[in-house]
Amino acid sequence: MIEMIDVWKTYPNGTHALRGITVRIKKGEFVYVVGPSGAGKSTFIKLMYREERPTKGQIFVNGINLEALRERRIPYLRRHIGVVFQDFKLLPKLTVRENVAFAMEVVEAPRRQIRQRVKEVLELVKLSHKADVYPDELSGGEQQRVAIARALVNRPSVLLADEPTGNLDPETSWGIMQLLEEINNHGTTVVMATHNREIVNTMRKRVIAIENGEIVRDEQRGEYGYET
């Protein structure tokens, strides 16, 4: 599903974010990406959906060579990749329903299909009753559920999550994690960067640890392994 081969990323200021990363993530896996702040976790995630490009190396997602991908094909790639951020990135002047529908509108899906699919994903994230409210009327956990619904609405094969529980209280964080696990159980590959030791140690999925831009640990049913 995802493969990186000898991937390096150096930013213009000289920061070496990733150094010689080689990794393969299979279809249907749930993978935590852990490590200290500044280790390269967010860069690792951004490379998978072409938000950043590697300085050197090859990246394949769903069989697509990202370096060979033309700019006009990037929206096609992102139809198959859902992305969830720590700060939600919802559009404040759109309702919950409109925020989720927007992701389908930009790929010009038929209106009838949009209505049906938005209804389905709002039911999945248990927010059907909040479809017509605005983001600032929601709790943090509810806003993150909307963000997840938006990420799922185009039926992506991969869901990337960069610190999705970082701004949430512990109880709300567990609700989000149960939702991500349910999504994964339906076959979606999930890759999640996190600092949350308790979640990683309790849920025991594959753990990829990055330090100074290098993978130092890659364990099935791994643990967080860092002080928080």
Automatic annotation (TrEMBL):
<comment type="function">
    <text>Part of the ABC transporter FtsEX involved in cellular division.</text>
</comment>
<dbReference type="InterPro" id="IPR015854">
    <property type="entry name" value="ABC_transpr_LolD-like"/>
</dbReference>
<comment type="similarity">
    <text>Belongs to the ABC transporter superfamily.</text>
</comment>
<dbReference type="InterPro" id="IPR003593">
    <property type="entry name" value="AAA+_ATPase"/>
</dbReference>
<keyword id="KW-0131">Cell cycle</keyword>
<dbReference type="GO" id="GO:0051301">
    <property type="term" value="P:cell division"/>
</dbReference>
<keyword id="KW-1003">Cell membrane</keyword>
<dbReference type="GO" id="GO:0022857">
    <property type="term" value="F:transmembrane transporter activity"/>
</dbReference>
<keyword id="KW-0472">Membrane</keyword>
<dbReference type="GO" id="GO:0005886">
    <property type="term" value="C:plasma membrane"/>
</dbReference>
<feature type="domain" description="ABC transporter">
    <location>
        <begin position="2"/>
        <end position="228"/>
    </location>
</feature>
<keyword id="KW-0547">Nucleotide-binding</keyword>
<protein>
    <recommendedName>
        <fullName>Cell division ATP-binding protein FtsE</fullName>
    </recommendedName>
</protein>
<keyword id="KW-0067">ATP-binding</keyword>
<dbReference type="InterPro" id="IPR003439">
    <property type="entry name" value="ABC_transporter-like_ATP-bd"/>
</dbReference>
<keyword id="KW-0813">Transport</keyword>
<comment type="subunit">
    <text>Homodimer. Forms a membrane-associated complex with FtsX.</text>
</comment>
<dbReference type="Pfam" id="PF00005">
    <property type="entry name" value="ABC_tran"/>
</dbReference>
<keyword id="KW-0132">Cell division</keyword>
<dbReference type="InterPro" id="IPR005286">
    <property type="entry name" value="Cell_div_FtsE"/>
</dbReference>
<dbReference type="InterPro" id="IPR027417">
    <property type="entry name" value="P-loop_NTPase"/>
</dbReference>
<dbReference type="GO" id="GO:0016887">
    <property type="term" value="F:ATP hydrolysis activity"/>
</dbReference>
<dbReference type="GO" id="GO:0005524">
    <property type="term" value="F:ATP binding"/>
</dbReference>
<dbReference type="InterPro" id="IPR017871">
    <property type="entry name" value="ABC_transporter-like_CS"/>
</dbReference>
